[in-house]
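Quick illustration, no need to memorize.
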Amino acid sequence: MRIIGLAAAALVATIGTASAQSFTIGLSNGWTGSEWRTQMIEEAQAAAAAWAERGVTVNLVIQSSDVDVQGQIGAVRNMINQGVDAIIINPNSPTAFDPIFAQAAAAEILVIATDAEVSSPDAIYVGIDQTDYGRKGCAWLVEALGGEGNVVTIQGLAGHPANEMRVAGCRESFAAAPGITVLTETNANWDQAQGQQTMQNLLATYDNIDGVYVQDGMAAGAWRAIVAAGLTADIVATGEVRKDFLDLWSAGGYNSGASVNPPGVMASALNVAVLRLLGGEFEEDIFGGVYGNAIFLDIPFIDNTNLADAVAAAEGQPGHWSVTDVLSIDDAEAMFFE
């Protein structure tokens, strides 16, 4: 990667007086099927603009479209050919990008994945632990059910790395609870309308559902089906952190809880990328994850004990807005750099 040679310990203190620097960073988003992804890009754009106040110009090259893995690899290749300084990618596969990331590394381009871990030794990951996301949500469901009951799960996009990790984490929590019986697992592609239809189908198929694990992007739809069936007092279900659902949750008094995957993860990754490009050296032993290249961010959790705070945070936002969090420049420097 292109290193400028400033000591990270003095980076934040000196950047305001340092000579202006400029970087070009590519943002690759291979799926546009949810407003969460739109918010993710918008927050990354805001983070890039904020660097100007510290004398650093961050120019963005944004690829955001519905493409398969090969299409996203092509977008990354185009960014390499454009000579970007760094690439931040929300990847459609955990393993398929290894060769193209190796090409980026050969061109001294920093690669950071977010939202889904990748296996490449030429990339790092900055985001939440998606396995723990699923683990926390299903552990909450087990506790809410008192350790016993019949549950169904509505998962996201089959095969997507983040979804598969969430599924694995959820299964861990259920496996540790012998009183829980999983009736079935299904997918609704992180789509609210599909989540509602899927829940309707499950309620028509099973008359003994006690709990539902449903991921974000689909929970509002699933809960609408539960409400329409008159079962809000009988079914415990996870939720999501979009404003429209938070309002329904608060007004309806649902028994719900939700792990938070902030759309700000790409903005957090961008702040880490710029600090690294400015010469920051990572702290020892900060990397973990299944591939040993992950820097994990905290996973907030919302339930009825802090729901009011989440509703207040969403005040004035559009219905599709998700509760978010961005690792600040100062916090990123203090937490991850020497």
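The chain has twelve helices and twelve strands.
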